[in-house]
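In the current project phase, we have settled on a layout for protein records. A sample record is reproduced below.
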Amino acid sequence: MAEAIEYEQFDQNPTSDGVSAPDPDLSRLSDIPMELSVEIGRTHMTVGETLDLRVGSVVALERQAGEAADLLVNGTAIARGEVIVMDERYGLRVTEILESNQISASTGTGEPTANETLAANS
């Protein structure tokens, strides 16, 4: 018969009242590369419609003109803003940082995020 093993987690950063404080030092992550992209809109097309595209074709997007563009990190929207031109380059002026519930809703995949999966399993 297997013996039950009990585990106890020890806090590494206890405060004076014994409650552990989260480690706010994220500097170790500062050199990790990420892909940032700006999405101005999406659309759905059939393979046939895609094959019919030619130079000069116009693809209508589901987003309205003047609506904020999404700032994506590794494919996940984290902020919104307005597209600007600076020194002949496009940029994004951030106007809104998305909250965590908006981030999971904006992925639009229908699949739970890693955090949602962890929360559901705990």
Observations:
- Confidence is low (pLDDT under 50) at residues 109-122.
- DSSP finds three helices and four strands in the chain.
- The first strand starts at residue 36 and ends at 39.
- Strands lie at 36-39, 69-73, 76-86, 89-97.
